[in-house]
Amino acid sequence: MQLFFLNSKLALRHLKSEVISGEEVVALLDDRALEDGMPIYLDDETMMPIEPHCSWARSLSNAELGEGTMKDYGRILARFSDHQGHRGRDVLSATESDVKAYKRVRTSLQKRPIGDSAWGKESQLLDRFYGYLKDDAGLLKHRPVRAGSRGRNPLAPKMKQKMDIRHLTLGQYRYFRDVGLGGQLPDSSVDPSFRGWSPHRNRAAADLALGTGMRWQEWATVLLPELGIGVGHPIKEVVFTVQACAKYGKARSIYVPDDAMKSLESYLLLERPEQADRSAKRLEKRHRDLFVVSRIDHGSGLVYGVLDGLEKVFTMSAMEPWLRRITVHETNVGLEALTVFICHGGQMPGADSWKRYRHAAWRRMVALADETVPVLPRKRWRWHDLRHTYALQMLNYLERQMDGEEPDAIERRRRHRSYLSSHVRLNPLLIVSRRLGHSSPATTFEYLEYSDDLLNDFDEAFRGWVGELGSEATYAQIASHAFRLENRGSADAAQG
């Protein structure tokens, strides 16, 4: 079996055949409403479609799943099909023993077993696949694995996974940002032997992630005009909407503090212009593969340009990551990416690139660690840990503001109960939940287990975290902005 994924753009640009043209293929795919990323399973010898795999893949396309999701699902089913082939069976004849044997291989026997989280995804996919064969395709009378209690997926991990909430102290963050990413020595002096690429970019990315609480896919894909860069006049308060890059497409407002913007300015002035100049010719050669922006309407948030030879108009908040990656605009030196962060190719770094930057920073941190540096955890930091740190520091700060100077712990708890019942709108937990874009406050509630951690007991939340050492700006600024937004929303609702 060979696995491929649908890509209409490749067919349009590279298919050269006397039988059918790339344009005709794209028209046919559009007529069938097939989405890019849909898995295609072909026989090794005949190169003909394999069933029921391809019909199931069509159902994924009809469900309008994301391109990355469909690719992940396609690979999982291909692995299970190979496992069945080695046992002399196919997916239709799979028994409960086959599925459990596959689980044992993936979670125990293979060279690098996967954990509960990864297996949970695979078990969910297999349960969905056999549900399709039984309920939609009518190819099976029953699933190979007996249903669990209350209809639950019987293959799912038995242990309920808890959120892996990890956060940094002030010292740990500065060591991660300045030494690991920025190339300094632990005593804050310059390291002349540092050969890392684009330290200002990586430091600015860390400050933006920490200062806004955005997820990786949100801050890594942000566009210059979304931060007010290129508007033509000074922007005192940067607020923009994230949606297409947000989890589940849930829209929310992002507030970027001044210190995070100042950190970005260093990168935009010192590193990015040189990177953009070096990559202009490379981008010019790929002109037809890019979305070339001709006009930006900052007031409405619309961008106008040409994609695949057609005039297009997009709302910036509705632009998905793949589109942002290929979005460029004309400058005096040629084409330049419209995303804030770019790499040596001139385009937005992908997930693997940011992972590589982080791993290199961790190796450097470990190599330079001594008794003078902050204690490092057993597992290396993740970019998402900066989001956790934002949430915990904001919760601590807002709760201290709510407590005031009340010395009696019993009275503080009584005030908390009154506050939660009569002032839900200004509840710190709900405010942080909205700022983070959590689907349910229950997710944010899990952070409370860590909110009394003595390692994060600061006099003022976030003082000196973002920007240069000695800055007077604090994250009380962010908190006050959040309160203003909540008050404004309440006032609008009352007027409505």
Structural class call reads: alpha+beta
What is the radius of gyration computed over CA atoms, rounded to a whole number of angstroms?
26 Å
Helix content: 40-55%
Question: Overall 3D geometry?
Answer: globular
Strand content: 5-15%
Uncertain segments: 452-460
Instruction: Give the CA-CA distance, first to last residue.
Output: 59 Å
Q: What profile does the largest beta sheet have?
A: 5 strands, mixed
**Count of helical regions:** 18
Which sequence of strands runs across the widest sheet?
Answer: 7-6-5-8-9
N-to-C series of helices and strands: EHHEHHHHHHHEEHHEEEHEEHHHHHH
Work out the number of β strands: 9
What is the average per-residue confidence, as pLDDT, rounded to a whole number?
Answer: 83
Characterize the structure shown.
It contains 18 helices and nine strands. It is of the alpha+beta class and 496 residues long. Among the domains are: 2-151, no CATH class; 386-495, no CATH class. Strands 7-6-5-8-9 form a five-stranded mixed β-sheet. A two-stranded antiparallel ribbon has the order 1-2. A two-stranded antiparallel sheet has the order 3-4. β6 and β7 form a beta hairpin. α7 crosses α13 (351-368) and α8 (199-212) crosses α14. The model is unreliable at 452-460 (pLDDT under 50).
